Amino acid sequence: MTAVRRIRVLMFAVGIWAGAISGTAAAATPAAGLEEGRVLFENACANCHGAGGTGTNLGPSLANAGAAGADFMLSTGRMPLDDPHRQPVRKPAAFDGEEISQIASYVASLGDGPPIPEVDVEEGDLVLGQQLYAENCGACHSSAGAGGAVGAGLEAPALRHATPVEVVEAMRIGPGAMPVFQEQTLSKQDADSIASYLVYLREVPDPGGLGLGRIGPIAEGAVVWLLGIGMVVLICRFVGEKE
Amino acid sequence: MIVQKTVRFLDERLRITGFSKKTLRRVFPDHWSFLLGEIALYLFLILIGTGIFLTFFFSPSAREVIYSGSYTPLRGVHMSQAYESLLDISFEVRSGLVMRQIHHWAALLFLAVLVVHMLRVFFTGAFRKPRELNWIVGLTLLTLGLLAGFSGYSLPDDLLSGTGLRIGYSVALSIPVVGTWLAFLVFGGEFPFGNIISRLYVIHILLIPGAIGLLLGLHLAMVWRQKHTQFPGPMRTEQKIVGTRMWPTYAVKAGALFFLTASTVTLLAGLFQINPVWIYGPFDPARVSAGAQPDWYLGWLEGALRLMPAWEVRAFGFTIPNPFFPGLLIPGLTFNILYAWPWIEAKFTKDTAPHNLLNRPRDVPVRTALGVAGLSFYTVLFVAGGNDVIAGLFNLPLERVTQGLQVMAFALPLVAGIATHRICKELKGRPPKTGDEPGHVIVRTADGSYETAEPEKV
User: Fold this and answer.
1) Contact B35 A127 (CB under 8 A)
2) Tens digits of per-residue pLDDT, A179-202?
3) Is residue A104 domain-shared with residue A125, that is, in the same domain?
4) Would you say B70 and B91 are in contact if contact means Cβ atoms under 8 Å apart?
5) CB nearest to A208's CB, from B75, B276, B296
């Protein structure tokens, strides 16, 4: 390790440590959460969403985004966004849990948006979840939750990293091109069931061997042409060449 | 002793020795690529074997049942008996899943090997007189292989296979004038179909394998009768075959080839999951899954459907629905051109002499260039069959991927064809490597190190 790299690593470690301290300090004063959240919002979000979350040319108004919207966007790392013209994608969250909940409570105070949903995966019905998932979600996210392209440069993301709360938040707020599924459409029981099915899909092993990303015939075709035909040619050369 | 007695018993009745002697003494030319067809034959046998196993447990019925097996997320769900039996084969039947996976992987590999075998025959000119008829039989075998694949992967009645049938039905509907009647005749009514699974089942396990078996026999009989082609080389002439005898060399090699082929598909089936029907769920006409693709060998047709611009032609008072062009015209033209190829080529080259010696691809630049151009066209179509997966994988807008591939479908064959033609012309006439050229000899010296010596020094 060079000296420069060593210093960099040290600086990184100090940064994490400093972040941890500020996190604990914030947690000690929960009553100031709203104000803390407003400050964080003005620094990180107001550039596009406007002061007070009223929206600008670059970002929509957050009046009805609610705590669910803020929590979903921030905890999946979709916001803050580097390039407002691209579809936000999942990346490591820029804020820690405490900061996210502060911003979420500030955004919730802006209007009448959905709250962060309560999700009880244990309460969900796996069979109902499979049915509802196939009816409402699979057309874009694929049967296996592997995601897919939906046109106009947008894509339905893979669901393998989404936590149950994030899944239900997405239903309630309909981020990007996704439709909104309110409680009248998918009840709490329905939402819990879908979340429990997704947890099942993620955790159940593939009984037939390597799952190949569960993207179906494309991956299978690639295996046949690269591995299968590769081995066939090797076999032919091994058996077919003289000596 | 027993062998002798049995042989004598059979010979006194069937007079087999003359024929067997001739066969066993026959000389077969040596080249690794001549074994591809044989591998396809073994894959067909593996497909028959695993297929028979699967018929013991599969029920081709659309009757609605309520699932009560061990796959929890579907317990209590209404589904067809066909799909239920697929779940049972996968989770209940001992070694059912691995048999299913061997069957499916063997099918994918079977068609891949058929295509490679066909390319070998094409690029070496093995289809020329007197072997045009066997080219036709071989192409028919490929067509039957495609139908076997489609009829097979449509049987599970899961969401993926149902989507495939829906597409097939729409393509059949798009045939001008007779489309509606033909689609009703084949599928037994309007979508969603009542008894298509049982129809496909008979086609898949009886008609197609029977036809493949018959034509395979004919294919091999013709190879036997006409003798196998060989590459030009020392002592090898149009009349004289240089190679190795059937017995014992090729008989032993055949055994090795069978077992190596079987272990390849078993290895694939043991390592990689294929077609997890339980994840797709039972077919429901109101549902569809993102990323629905056919198996690879129909990917080029799927790609043609996806690349075709949304044009609709009206002629003579009839509408020619859009899927007709990519779904039927392209495969129709493809196979007609392929069937007629030996005669098309003979017409242009004015070569009507019989040929037992193969071409090296480089020595026939025009055919090789056309072949590569065609191949790149179908490769673009094939890639387009997964345009959504590519868009997702490379983070590109779906429409851009489609437009790019539309351009590529015309540009790539042109570029690849011209490049191939130039390369072939450059290489044409260069002598092949025979392996007889003097090489380097590695000699161990007194102090234990190694050095290369010129052959004459040794």
Assistant:
1) no
2) 999 999 999 999 999 999 999 999
3) no
4) yes
5) B276
